[in-house]
Automatic annotation (TrEMBL):
Protein name in the entry: Uncharacterized protein
Organism the protein comes from: Mycolicibacterium fortuitum subsp. fortuitum DSM 46621 = ATCC 6841 = JCM 6387
Amino acid sequence: MGLLTKGLLSISVFKVRTTAGLAGIVSAANQRRYPETPTKPSEGWGSLSDDETLAAKDGVRLDLKSYTVSVATNHNSTPIVALRYYYDEPDPSLIKRFGDSDWRRTSNRGAFDVFLLDENQPDELTALVATRNDVEVTNYARPALTELVSDEVPPGSITSASITEELDPDFFLWLLYMLHKNLRIAPNVKLSGILDMSGVFVGRRSHLSQGVDMYREDSLALVARNRSKLGPAKIAITHYAEPEGYFELQLFPDSGFQVYRKSKYDDKELKKLPVSLSGQRMVQDVWQTLLPTIRATYSADAEWRSKHRSEFVNWAKEELKKF
């Protein structure tokens, strides 16, 4: 279950090809709403504003009274639709316990939240889906999003939002370099730490779970191998422009991310937001403000590609000889 109203904020990113825009998404979601009083295991759309108890496992035993879904504009002046997808699943342990009783007693409800944003790309929307569970993404998230654009002529489509030219293994190596040199990513963006980093070299996975220190053998080895496939990485970012704050993020090569609850805003008004709203706000700020700045700096760093990358790898090789 992936709700933006509590817990770890885990986001998968998709691109939605559609000629109908957000208005078409709203219309399609309203045609595919989860029934208020289902008579059998069901699935369908509701609103992100719904009471979160309806999305709990035992929420299946409650009638689902959902809020109206509509197009809104977020604090970044971006048109947005906020949805929640519900689905019921039989639970073998409950079936064994209660037998052929009412399906509500032998099923659990799952749910995940979805933001759909119109980021001014022709015939394309961005979907931020609050789950990185492979089974949930494959069995529910992708099919549900595909259904929303299936009635178009020609039908729309859903694709992963992998940004290979930006968030590639070298991107994570570049983060290690920026940390080692104590360089700011941008005037208002400081890399305060890399809390963990994963890497694969010749089929063997390495994982730095106690933080990255470029004078430690395991950290140096990740760099010195050169051909290591790096990522994901958990990083700490201090942002000195709006929204000011401290953010702990897990970045994945497929452009997905996680926002940890240790993240916090400095702004007095944003600090007052309840958890149910601060998570929603933070996901939008990370996607629309922090990550574009980080990726743009990496993409524009020509000296990294022409000079600093090779120097960094060679330095790590020499340092590694001291162990």
